[in-house]
Fold this sequence. Notes:
Blueprint: H1 3-11, H2 14-19, H3 25-43, H4 69-81, E1 83-88, H5 94-101, E2 107-114, E3 118-124, H6 127-136, E4 154-156, E5 170-171, H7 178-186, H8 191-202, H9 206-223, E6 231-235, E7 249-254, H10 256-259, H11 282-300, E8 304-310, E9 317-322, E10 327-333, H12 336-351, H13 353-368, H14 382-394, H15 404-409, E11 418-419, E12 422-423, H16 442-454, E13 461-464, E14 469-472, H17 497-515, H18 517-520, H19 536-539, H20 559-581
Parallel strand pairs: 1-4, 2-5, 7-10
Antiparallel strand pairs: 1-3, 2-3, 6-7, 8-9, 9-10, 11-12, 13-14
Helix pairs in contact: 3-8, 4-9, 7-8, 8-13, 12-13, 13-14, 16-17
Magnesium ion binds near residues 236, 247, 248 and 250.
Amino acid sequence: MRFSSLARTTMASPFTVHRLHMRGRHRLVNCLNSVQRTFRRSAGTERGAVQTEGTLGEDSGEKDGPKSFYELMADRQEQAEKSVLISCQSRTSEKKFLNFLSKHGDIKKHFFYESYGVYAVVEFACRDNVVSLLESAAIPSVSHESMVPFKSRLLSLRNHSSGESPSLPCQPQTTVPINELIQRLSREESVDEQISSLTEAYQLREENSRLRFLVCSLLKDIAAAYFPECTIKPFGSSVNGFGKLGCDLDMFLDLDTISGKNLKTPKSGLSLEYQMKRTNSERHVTQSILSVIGECVDHFGPGCVGVQKILNARCPLVRFAHQPSGFQCDLTANNRVAMKSTELLYLYGELDPRVRSLVFTIRCWARTHGITSSIPGAWISNFSLTVMVLFFLQKRSPPIIPTLDCLRDLAGPADESVIEGNDCTFVTDFSKILLQSNTDTLEQLLTDFFEFYATFPFSRMSLNIRKGKEQNKPEVAPLHIQNPFETSLNVSKNVNSSQLDRFVALCQESAWLLQQSETRTPTGVGGKHTTKPWGLATLLLPSQVAGVKGRKKRKPHHASERIKSLLESLKSKNDGKKNSDS
Length: 582
Ligand code: GTP
Ligand code: MG
């Protein structure tokens, strides 16, 4: 079945539904419908008509499949170029604000959010509107400080008239706290619904995604002082479909249009070429460029603070915080393989809604138990963890997603890509991808994921998503995951054996918890103020087997004891709230 037909079949076809287990078949279809709708909305991958509320037998309304990665990037970059970021006072009238701005042109989209103050993202109909707006802006006059006279699309709104308005409606840009998430999940009626609820709570929203592209575009304006034709593109979880609200913003300074790598020189006649400074290595060029851009960002970049140049890393980068957006940013250059990995992950996430749901769930579970961390170290990275989920989905019978070799075989001439001698070719046209009819529920997949890795022969075998098979480890390392494109490398080289042991112990515990009758089904207790954690929610409670690094392993408590203690804490919180309310 082709992808576009799969989207319809998993979501709606009576034929597929007949093949589902009776128990929960309606739930699965509804759940997949809701997951798919949520993703398309947040990632902005939907083409044309928004889907209607889905029911069995209803057409999904999606005829053309998702946007390709390039289309998505181009659309988002275009929006960002026509947008400005404005710091506002919270008590500004939204109507007055929009009237004031619309003097410069039609406003296509706007939203407010909070990050060290209230900000507005405003997208105009065309770039000329932005030029007109910038021409009308004044240079701030301050008596005690001096200004770096660098003009950008980051502005401040000054309100010179008196009178207060209601607070501006702000879009949330952060995830719900874990205890709130546990309670929310406990109120769901099936594990599948819990998984979609978690995904919905954690994934990047449309607005957050726009803001990420806008920050890249603002940064491009700084880099353009040296390289007018450059672009800065987000990669990693900001765009691969697996980003969580609050994840870092990985950026790639793309100079390929300037370096002219793709231009052919004529074989006869006259031609001109630029004289350029030569250095002894590509790495040195990258380091020099990042060093200079890093200085610019540090000295001239409005809102950019804590700039660190980490130029001797395997992949040189400039790290800083962008205060107006609240993003932790990593700017790299010459990092095309990571861009390809991002595109591959995006493609896998678009093939079947269960891919993203499972990745979100496993990423959240891993983070809760300290399996992953935002600090670099011997932990499993989110990237490695995602590859582990993909590998598991390739190993299903029938497989849910194809192998990378299969995607390479489907590639056309336009998809060909060789980066630094590595074959990074794979198909980009979704309609060429054939998927097999697998009807596993998310609950089955989650349980089987934990069982799969609880018993995986990590000591001997390496994971290979190119082949969709484990293979003998080519080198000694506790965890070996073959890099999909630089195949001689191990993406989890940093992981030590104690971190791997913790992962395996947690998989064992989670598989066990999902099989216990007392935790696998919802049985609400405690009235309307408390809901007993069950299913996925229990997996997010503190673990007894691998909670804190270096902590002595304690004898596993019975699950009910852990749940009892959480209930007690929830109860006392609610009692406290009731008392303070009364
Ligand atoms: P977050 O933890 O949410 O930031 O996930 P992420 O996917 O953005 O991970 P990270 O910021 O560490 O890396 C950004 C991107 O770089 C990843 O999505 C990959 O595309 C790529 N990447 C990271 N680590 C590796 C690696 O070890 N090998 C390869 N080939 N690519 C990597
Ligand atoms: Mg990242």
